[in-house]
Specification:
The chain has 334 residues and is mostly helical. The protein has one domain. 80% of the residues lie in helices and 2% in strands. Strands 1-2 form a two-stranded antiparallel ribbon. α2 runs antiparallel to α8 and α3 runs antiparallel to α7. The protein is globular. This is Sugar phosphate transporter domain-containing protein. Keywords: Membrane, Transmembrane, Transmembrane helix. It is found in: Membrane.
Length: 334
């Protein structure tokens, strides 16, 4: 296969991965919003546990069918990943409850500089001036679009701090573990989804009772609400898988930067389906700035020296030729 064909194939696979993530992420937002707002199922942590239980079943079926090969992941790596992931889920839920919407959005935006910091410190990544400026432009555009009121208290700040750092570490570890152990997204999900499901289903009911003062076992599980829960779990399989595929193919920083496209898309869909309430000049300007920043980031980071690891050329070459190429074959088929 020629170099041009390989490049074209990579662009097609990268685009398909992002579209997969965008469609499933926006879909689960819509379904969960209906489930919580319309049917009163406000048990977010327990619902996330059900999501990972469904993902576990999917990985077990694929393993039985031979699509997932046996692989080894040290228990210490699994434990660290599950701790980061669970603190991320609980931290985000608590941050949203204790903080204003404006501060919650600001906290989410800080994940990009935190992810950059982790890559610089842990992976010796160096960013060009244009890459740094494009990230700042994305942050500015999304902030203009989404940040409204701004109030914070001590416990809300602590919750947001834990949520931001645990989420950034979890996303960093998705890419790090795939690269370190030469395993693909399915294999990594097969190792991490079961302990996440068990831990969240054990802790979730207590956490949800603390947050909502409602018991998950006292909820009226009618036919329609159960169907929505099952639909949410089905979409969550795609959401979890697409996140692992995207971060595995790119990095946590790129996933965060381009991931804000989903925020813009949700805003646009809201204006289309729910009228023009909230649509004003500064929101439109923010969208334009953010989209321009994302395009600039894509161009700047792909240029020579735009984003590169220092003194790891030989390791990366070996990974590309031997490890990650083989481990990503199933991801590319999906």
């Amino acid at each position: 296969m020629t170099t041009t064909s390989k490049d074209d194939n990579k662009v097609a696979l990268d685009t398909a991965s992002w579209m997969f993530n965008i469609v499933t992420s926006v879909g689960i937002i819509i379904v969960n919003k209906a489930l919580m707002a319309t049917y009163g199922y406000t048990f977010a942590t327990t619902l996330t546990g059900l999501h990972f239980a469904a993902t576990t079943i999917m990985t077990l079926v694929l393993k039985r069918l031979g699509y997932i090969q046996s692989s080894h992941l040290p228990p210490s790596d699994i434990l660290k990943f599950v701790l980061f992931a669970n603190f991320s889920i609980v931290g985000m839920n608590v941050s949203l409850m204790w903080n204003s919407v404006g501060f919650y959005q600001i906290a989410k935006l800080t994940m990009i500089p935190v992810s950059c910091f982790l890559e610089v410190v842990l992976d010796s990544v160096r960013y060009s001036r244009d890459t740094k400026l494009s990230i700042l432009l994305v942050l500015l555009g999304v902030a203009i679009c989404t940040v409204t009121d701004m109030s914070v208290n001590l416990k809300g700040f602590v919750a947001a701090f834990i949520a931001v750092w645990s989420t950034s570490l979890q996303q960093y570890y998705v890419h790090y573990l795939q690269r370190k152990h030469s395993i693909g997204s399915f294999n990594l999900l097969g190792h991490t989804a079961p302990p996440q499901a068990v831990s969240l289903l054990l802790v979730g009911p207590f956490m949800d009772y603390w947050l909502t003062n409602k018991r998950v076992d006292s909820y009226n599980y009618a036919f329609t609400s159960v169907m929505f829960i099952m639909l949410s779990c089905a979409i969550a399989i795609g959401t979890n898988l697409s996140q692992f595929i995207c971060i595995g193919r790119f990095t946590a920083v790129t996933f965060q930067v381009l991931g804000h496209m989903k925020t813009i898309l949700v805003l646009i869909l809201g204006f289309i389906f729910f009228g023009k309430e909230g649509l004003n000049l500064h929101v439109v300007v923010g969208m334009i700035v953010a989209i321009f920043g994302m395009m600039w980031y894509g161009h700047a980071s792909s240029q020579p020296g735009g984003k590169e690891r220092i003194h790891t050329l030989s390791t990366n070459k070996i990974e590309e030729e031997i490890g990650l190429v083989k481990s990503n074959e199933l991801d590319e088929k999906v």
